[in-house]
Amino acid sequence: MGLGQTLLTVFALALLGTAILMMNFTVFDSGTAIETSEYFIMGTSLGISQLESASGKAFDEKTVSADIASTAALTVVLGKETGETEPTFDDYDDYHGLAKWVNGDSINFRSASFLVRDSVDYVTISGNTVTASASRTYHKRLRIWVSSPSMRDTLKFSSVYSYWYFR
Amino acid sequence: MGSQVILDVIGSFILFGWLLLSTIRVGTANSENMQTYGGELLVQENLVEITRLLEYDFRKIGYCKEPNHLPDPTKAIVFADSTRIKFLTDVDADGSGPDGGIDSILYYLGPASELASTTNPRDRMLYRVVNTASPLGANLGVTSFVLRYYDGQGIPIASPVTGANLQKIQTIQISIIVENTVAAELEETAPINQQYSSAFWQQMRLSSRNYRNR
């Protein structure tokens, strides 16, 4: 085999190797995208569940069993009250500062563990703009971040809950 | 023909055969992967469609455009067990929006035997029945549809929920598993490994505002 033929063979092998590698990368990328979207679905279900769970609570500790006449009656320091745990949360801002791990198992979240973090603050609403408020208002915003070691991105959910009652 | 040439020809054949086998192997693996990923994608799309519908309907438990027609939303759930739920709401079959009349929606899972024609032995039809209309269902590969109910304190209510306990339901946990109706046949493992892609979704606590208070 001459030098030319040898070089041609080496070139052909390199070309084939590159093609196979590129094919593998494409397959792996597809797999990663599919897995990621599955984690997103799970993370989204966790985030929305948290929002729904919170929206089933009272607006404020002071409105759990009574009405209030002005924002001055609302809680100043947001967060859970002493002794409360997530199953016993009774108002919206109890979720403020909550951070919990939802660990995966072989059936449900399939070995993916998720970290869910919550934050609640008072907000003012003007048109479509929601702005954090230093003072107490009739609107509270719950923000939830769902992250996982299995995901590159963090999912963020936000919902505003307003105080209302029927006279 | 010299011995060197013969050696070259034999070597070329061996090399060509090896390359051919490698290429075929790569092609097969690629095909199987694409089949699996396609199945995963289909499952996820089906799951999203189901959850979208469920979220829309469950969010409206106890809702009625004309409040006087449904004065007590706590009585909106008519029947509830681990795989079936019937509740009162306000939907319009033609899609034009709520019309102020009370409607009922029943969700239930059909038997696995109903879909014996599919290769997946676990898939079932998830039915949605509005009022007294014929059950509508689509084979989206639902293999599990489990409902759990909780009261206002987050305490689980035993299923089936009956009588006064129906009014205690404040939150509902919905768990769904969707699988492919047709398996991806992977030839990597002998003789043939039928792999069903699956996706799981769980609405941990879906509380209906209308159900809790108006």
What would you say this structure looks like, in words?
- The complex is a heterodimer of chains A (167) and B (214).
- Chain A has one helix spanning 3-55; strands at residues 99-102, 114-126, 129-132, 139-147, 155-162.
- With 167 residues, chain A is α+β, with helices and mostly antiparallel strands.
- Chain A has one domain.
- In chain A, strands 1, 2, 3, 4 and 5 form a five-stranded antiparallel beta sheet that branches.
- In chain A, a hairpin with a 2-residue loop joins strand 2 (114-126) and strand 3 (129-132).
- Chain B is α+β, with helices and mostly antiparallel strands and 214 residues long.
- Chain B has one domain (11-212).
- Chain B is built from two helices and ten strands; from the N terminus they run H-E-E-E-E-E-E-E-E-E-E-H.
- Chain B has helices spanning 3-59, 209-212, and strands at residues 77-80, 84-89, 103-109, 124-130, 136-150, 156-157, 171-179, 184-186, 193-195, 198-207.
- Chain B is elongated.
- The N and C termini of chain B lie far apart (97 Å).
- Chain A binds chain B through residues 1, 16, 20, 23-24, 27, 30-31, 34, 37-38, 41-42, 45-46, 48-50, 52-53, 55-56, 87-88, 107-110, 166, and chain B through 8, 19, 22-23, 26, 29-30, 33-34, 37, 40-41, 44, 47-48, 51, 55, 153-154, 170-171, 175, 199-207, 209, 212, 214.
**Residue runs with pLDDT of under 50 for 5 or more positions of chain B:** none
Distance between the termini of chain A: 98 Å
pLDDT averaged over residues of chain A:
88
Number of strands of chain A: 5
* String of helices and strands of chain A: HEEEEE
Short description:
Chain A contains 1 helix and 5 strands. With 167 residues, chain A is α+β, with helices and mostly antiparallel strands.
